[in-house]
């Protein structure tokens, strides 16, 4: 019984302290492609597009914040159109028990996993969006909490960490 408790405790402890960074590539049916970086730490997530005209999304304390990349002083709390990003956050929290498919409301998500049993590709199908999100160069690594602040925003630079 003690061994079972220790294994459960270690498994729970590992899943609660998940820290990972990945590059991503969103591919839309129109052929449009967007690139960026995803950081995840203890249920907090940062989804940052590389394009200066786009934005960074921060998820923390069950809220989403949109920060404009061209002016990081502009911060908006958002409540609408968060289904896809909320589902990505939830799926990452399932690691290492990520399922092959997820369905919520009008959203169908299919998952392909890499050799580490982490997400390699997410396929999203809905009435509004059909896209693939490819994750690559994923690293389980310590991530500084400063990257999850929506005020006093810090641009992510892997070289500095």
Task: Provide key terms for this protein.
2 helices; disordered N terminus; single chain; alpha+beta
Summarize the structure.
With 161 residues, the chain is α+β, with helices and mostly antiparallel strands.
Q: Treating each run of at least 4 consecutive H or I residues as one helix, how many helices?
A: 2
> What do the pLDDT scores average to?
89
Tell me the total number of β-strands: 10
User: What proportion of the residues is helical, as a percent range?
Assistant: 10-25%
Question: Overall 3D geometry?
Answer: globular
Regions with little confidence, pLDDT below 50 for 5+ residues? 1-15
Q: Give the ordered list of helices and strands.
A: HEEEEEEHEEEE
Widest sheet: strand ordering = 6-5-4-3-2-1-10-9-8-7
Radius of gyration: 16 Å
Total number of distinct structural domains = 1
Question: In this structure, how is the largest beta sheet organized?
Answer: 10 strands, antiparallel
Strand content: 35-45%
N- and C-termini, Cα separation: 41 Å
Describe this structure in words.
It contains two helices and ten strands. With about 160 residues, the chain is α+β, with helices and mostly antiparallel strands. Strand 1 (about 20-30) and strand 2 (about 35-40) form a beta hairpin. It is globular and about 35 Å long. The relative contact order is 0.19. The model is unreliable at about 1-15 (pLDDT under 50).
Give the helices and strands, then pairings.
Elements: H1 2-16, E1 19-28, E2 33-41, E3 44-49, E4 55-60, E5 63-68, E6 75-78, H2 83-93, E7 101-104, E8 107-113, E9 119-126, E10 130-140
Antiparallel strand pairs: 1-2, 1-10, 2-3, 3-4, 4-5, 5-6, 7-8, 8-9, 9-10
């Amino acid at each position: 019984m003690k061994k079972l408790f220790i294994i459960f405790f270690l498994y729970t402890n590992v899943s609660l302290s998940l820290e990972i960074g990945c590059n991503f590539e969103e591919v839309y049916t129109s052929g449009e492609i967007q690139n960026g970086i995803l950081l995840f730490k203890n249920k907090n997530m940062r989804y940052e597009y590389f394009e200066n005209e786009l934005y960074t999304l921060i998820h923390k304390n069950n809220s989403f914040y949109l920060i404009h990349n061209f002016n990081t002083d502009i911060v908006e709390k958002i409540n609408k159109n968060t289904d896809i990003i909320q589902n990505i956050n939830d799926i990452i929290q399932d690691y290492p028990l990520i399922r092959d498919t997820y369905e919520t409301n009008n959203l169908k998500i299919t998952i392909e996993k890499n050799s580490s049993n982490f997400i390699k590709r997410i396929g999203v199908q809905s009435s509004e969006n059909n896209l693939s999100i490819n994750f690559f160069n994923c690293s389980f690594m310590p991530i500084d909490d400063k990257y999850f602040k929506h005020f006093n925003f810090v641009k992510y630079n892997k070289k500095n960490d």
